[in-house]
């Protein structure tokens, strides 16, 4: 398999929307609107084009990952982090390591851009292989009604979450609201 991971282009948007929709079609813990979330996240101030990546095989987009900026607000501080949401692979291409390669590539690009951490809501048994730990380990609370083992955090560099405890503040589009869109 000749896999290319690259920055997403505007011309990829329709293919990415279709693949996200197909990837989450049978996911029980999904609202099946992840493709809409990605479109809305592209319009927020936290969108970082260099952190929207696609996986391509034979000039066909088969996977996508998006990291967007968020804040962690403590009682006396704020720190920047990234949210991973979502990572998607076409069903016919799942189980071949494409999702893992997208995650690793996104982490590396985020490190190169100077980011210190990533937060996510996801499968408690999948993400620890990439170094994710419960967000509560760092004193971070995610704003989702989910078990703590599904609220995860990763330090992209040693100490990346030191003294960063607090509430993770996601853009309103994560909750179905459009109020954080760019002017």
Report on the architecture of this protein.
This protein has one domain: 3-Layer(aba) Sandwich (Aminopeptidase). Helices cover about 20% and strands about 35% of the residues. It has 3 helices and 9 strands. Strands 1, 2, 3, 4, 5, 6, 7, 8 and 9 form a 9-stranded mixed sheet that branches. The longest helix has 15 residues, at about 100-110. The radius of gyration is 16 Å and the shape is globular. The protein starts with a strand and ends in a 14-residue tail after the last strand. The model is unreliable at about 180-183 (pLDDT under 50).
Structure characteristics:
3 helices, nine-stranded mixed β-sheet, Aminopeptidase, 183 residues, alpha+beta
Written as H for each helix and E for each strand, in order along the chain, the element string is EHHEEEHEEEEE
CATH homology superfamily name? Gcn5-related N-acetyltransferase (GNAT)
Low-confidence stretches: 179-183
Helix share, percent? 10-25%
Total helices: the number is: 3
CATH fold-level assignment: Aminopeptidase
Content of β-strand: 25-35%
Q: Count the strands?
A: 9
Total of domains: 1
Net shape? globular
Round the mean pLDDT to the nearest integer and report it: 93
User: What class, by secondary structure content?
Assistant: alpha+beta
N-to-C terminal Cα separation, in Å?
42 Å
Biggest sheet: strands, sense, closure? Answer: 9 strands, mixed
Q: What's the architecture in CATH terms?
A: 3-Layer(aba) Sandwich
Radius of gyration: 16 Å
Supply the CATH class: Alpha Beta
Multimeric status of the protein: single chain
